């Protein structure tokens, strides 16, 4: 069964459903793709297939349709739906993934798909906006809020998000057997996506936060953090509520991902771009470069290499 939730999709023919189900199974075999990314690719492919079968009522969907003017007509259709240019480009990126799989499985000749380049709707000067840059003062204020009003577990949660750059889902899934603590540092072992595991280093601040709150955290076989009300595994929604609760206490407007972005901005001033991408686990250096583009120190860095 297909796992994607998409905008309204008309009934698809059985061969088309079988084709996209095979694509779904292929996505699940790719170690570097998370479940959310796989769903996004399906959400891009299913509506296009439904649109093709509606637009060409006498034809079933085929990967070959991506090599015809139908793709341009589909972009125009998405624009009529008032989708933003960035959303349309993301959809085309998902369809490109489907094309690559079609070529690998010999469903369509590579030259046929590559004959029409994908359309870039964003002007060269219109790059995605960098994430919000949490200031030093805002970070200090949030830290004081959770220190004065929160539990040791809550403080450890906030410190880990700030000092490791972990995604919210990764924080929620941490277990005690994933944690290694040394004298002043340590590491976390994270699963996936896929069967692979990776190590995330703990700096002294993250190490100390876990060490101090360890006696009050659940037994070693359980997750590090649990929902304070239900005693179950901490959900992403509960984690978002936790961050916003302590932010509101000090009149800050913070979102769930602001601490991860804060980690990205701080590390961007200390490590090369490719290393930052490894630390924050970005698949694309273009995404990581957003932290560099937003740095207020770039003009100063430029002065260092200016001709004299």
> Could you tell me the number of beta strands?
3
Structural class comes to mainly alpha
- Using only C-alpha atoms, the radius of gyration works out to 23 Å
Low-confidence stretches: 296-308
Biggest sheet record: 3 strands, antiparallel
CATH domain fold name of the largest domain: hpI Integrase, Chain A
Q: Give the SSE string.
A: HHHHHHHHEEEHHHHHH
Q: Mean pLDDT, nearest integer?
A: 77
The CATH superfamily of the largest domain is Intergrase catalytic core
Shape from CA axes? Answer: elongated
Distance between the termini: 65 Å
Question: Your description of this structure?
Answer:
Helices cover 53% and strands 5% of the residues. The termini are far apart. Helix 1 runs antiparallel to helix 2 and helix 7 packs antiparallel against helix 9. Strands 1-2-3 form a 3-stranded antiparallel beta sheet. The protein folds into 2 domains: 14-114; 136-295, hpI Integrase, Chain A, CATH 1.10.443. Residues 296-308 have low confidence and may be disordered. By secondary structure, it is mainly alpha-helical.
Element layout with pairings:
Blueprint: H1 14-28, H2 35-55, H3 70-80, H4 85-104, H5 110-114, H6 136-149, H7 152-164, H8 168-173, E1 179-181, E2 186-191, E3 197-202, H9 204-213, H10 236-249, H11 258-268, H12 273-280, H13 285-293, H14 298-304
Antiparallel strand pairs: 1-2, 2-3
Outline:
This protein has helices at residues 14-28, 35-55, 70-80, 85-104, 110-114, 136-149, 152-164, 168-173, 204-213, 236-249, 258-268, 273-280, 285-293, 298-304, and strands at 179-181, 186-191, 197-202. The chain is mainly α and 308 residues long. Strand 1 and strand 2 form a beta hairpin.
